[in-house]
Design brief:
heterodimer, A: 143 residues, mainly alpha, 5 helices, 1% strand, B: 424 residues, alpha+beta, 5-stranded mixed β-sheet, 5-stranded antiparallel β-sheet, 8 helices, 28 strands, elongated
Chain lengths: 143, 424
């Protein structure tokens, strides 16, 4: 039992439970943005069971890991950050500022904000293309 | 690999389909849910958890044609929506929870909802922790097919906002879910404005009214200014109107004139008079009449059972409707008005030929909000031409019926809930 003293459990203490990793730097922010579909839309369609042969997901995971290992290009990261700031009603700075970190660390639903469009043919190349197209647009905006 | 993918995806969609909108939606209207046994939270009693989920499902049912029923018996694969709590790696799901903070729950399209039991979930209005009701309404929204909606006030916002008072599904969210499942349609037994007199702190008497829609043994208070029913409706009839038949009435008539002020409920061959002051039917009214009374006794010449009735203040006549006939009853003379009964087409002629309910109507309702009479039948209504309309267009027939419209496009979100969810 989690330790508490008040009848309504309002003072429940999570002595031994682990805490979510706080988002403080670019790497953990990238993970957050990827997880919720801001860097690469997520296929949230299927129920994922442990050990299930979700070959479809492996493709994505491969891509996913590549992106993170090599590090998302700073442009991609900034675009994704701006999109997150926009939908969260934050000033769109493109910077991982305190307000953005605070918003990322809020309690939230685990369903991604950006999901893959199931009606489009799904190929990793296709998705990458769509991402790069996006980037061009944002650059144009910047210029 | 593409073919494999296509078969993989199509196989998984068997339970749900893309609606015309392209979003995933259930094709069934009654959905079963269950809090699965190995997924109870360690923080709230099981009864509290089940009550909160029942309320959460009911809140979606109050704004959509969907009904939800808790099913603790059927084989699990027959249950449409399964809910459970877990921490870290949980319930065979490979989306591991992250512990306290950030992700507090997620939902899968096939109808599984998981809650992170490392979060501090609390009951409604606890004022602290994370409201399980709020999270449950949000995740059920996903299961029903709604994505994240960033609009302030939406229950589908991805980030948790501390509980404001009066957490409800707002207008835009209602439109979003009705975009997937359609609006709430259905017949009504009767519709009426209930008038009451109140005294202001300065001793003045003011007159207020509320609009009520009755269907079988349920009723909704309709808030005209907010274009929706009262939060938490429908309610069982016997809770709000003591003494009238629990399975519904045929009509409610308020005879209100300089000399009279009496509310009657009609059902079958009998009628009751309602005692507003004591909020129940009279056993014996101030005139010494004992209730229920026979309609033929109280309103000689009127044949019962009736379809419906309303009181027309202009002539102090009660119009009773039965099949294709209309009986106008002169209250002052206590007899049928001359020439009645008449065919409904003669009393209420169609303004547009062919556009007429042709009798057997469900409800006749004089609305103080619209200052107009409406005849309801099925999912449609016809508005009776009023004096103002006739002043503008004198060629319109007296008491003519304007072309019909849909009830649910005029009075919004009058939705059923599953009978097991009625008492919450």
């Amino acid at each position: 039992e989690k330790l508490f003293h008040n009848r309504d459990h309002s003072d429940v203490q999570n002595v031994n439970s682990h805490r979510a990793e706080v988002i403080t730097d670019k790497y953990s922010a990238e993970l957050f943005l990827s997880r919720y579909g801001f860097i690469m839309p997520v296929n949230w369609e299927e129920v994922q069971f442990e050990g299930s042969d979700a070959s479809f997901n492996d493709d994505f995971l491969d891509n996913f890991q590549d992106l993170i290992q090599e590090g998302t290009s700073s442009q991609e990261f900034i675009s994704a950050l701006e999109e997150f700031q926009r939908v969260s009603g934050l000033p769109v700075t493109g910077l991982l500022d305190e307000a953005t970190k605070l918003a990322m660390n809020k309690p939230r639903c685990g369903v991604p904000d950006k999901e893959i469009d199931l009606n489009a043919p799904v190929t990793p190349e296709n998705i990458m293309v769509s991402i790069s197209t996006d980037i061009h647009q944002s650059q144009a905006v910047r210029r | 690999r593409k073919r494999h993918l296509a078969t993989l995806v199509s196989k998984n969609r068997r339970r749900r389909d893309l609606s015309e909108t392209g979003y995933m939606a259930f094709s069934k209207r009654v959905l079963k849910w269950r809090l699965i046994g190995e997924g109870y939270s360690s923080q709230l009693s099981v009864e509290d958890q089940r009550y909160i989920f029942r309320l959460a499902f009911r809140m979606w049912s109050e704004v959509s044609p969907l009904e939800f029923v808790e099913d603790t018996r059927s084989p699990l694969e027959d249950v449409d929506i399964r809910l459970g709590f877990g921490t870290g790696r949980h319930l065979g799901c490979n989306q591991r929870f992250d512990g306290t903070g950030q992700e507090f729950a997620h939902a899968w399209f096939l109808g599984d909802i998981h809650f992170d039991d490392d979060e501090h979930f609390t009951g409604p209005n606890a004022g602290s922790g994370i409201s399980l009701l709020k999270v449950a309404v949000h995740e059920i929204g996903h299961v029903l097919g709604l994505p994240h909606i960033y609009r302030p006030g939406s229950v589908m916002q991805p980030s948790y906002l501390p509980q404001e008072s009066g957490f409800e599904v707002d207008w835009m969210d209602r439109k979003a879910i009705q975009h997937l499942y359609g609006g709430c349609k259905g017949r009504f037994n009767t519709v009426f404005d209930w008038i009451r007199k109140e005294r202001t702190p300065y001793g003045e008497v003011v007159i207020r009214f509320n609009t009520y829609f009755l269907r079988d043994g349920w009723y909704w208070l309709y808030e005209n200014r907010k274009n929706r029913t009262r939060f938490g409706d429908p309610v069982a009839l016997q809770i709000g109107w003591r003494g009238i038949p629990m399975d519904g009435v045929d009509a409610c008539v308020h005879v209100w004139s300089r000399k009279r002020d009496a509310v009657y409920f009609f059902k079958g061959t009998q009628f009751w008079r309602y005692d507003n002051a004591n909020d129940q039917v009279f056993r014996q009214d101030p005139e010494g009449h004992r209730y229920p009374r026979l309609i033929s006794e109280g309103f000689p010449g009127v044949v019962s059972p009736i379809d419906t009735a309303f009181y027309d203040r202009r002539q102090s006549h009660i119009y009773f409707f039965k099949n294709t006939l209309v009986y106008a009853f002169d209250v002052e003379a206590n007899s049928l008005a001359r020439g009645f009964p008449k065919n409904i087409r003669d009393v209420f002629p169609a303004v547009e030929s062919g556009d007429h309910p042709d009798g057997n109507i469900d409800a006749a309702y004089f609305s103080y909000t619209h200052n107009a009479i409406f005849l309801l039948k099925g999912t449609r209504f016809w508005q009776v031409v009023g004096s103002h309309e006739r002043w503008r267009r004198p060629f319109l027939p007296r008491n003519g019926l304007l072309p019909h419209k849909e009830v649910d496009q005029h009075w919004f979100d009058i939705c059923n809930v599953h009978p097991t969810a009625l008492r919450l």
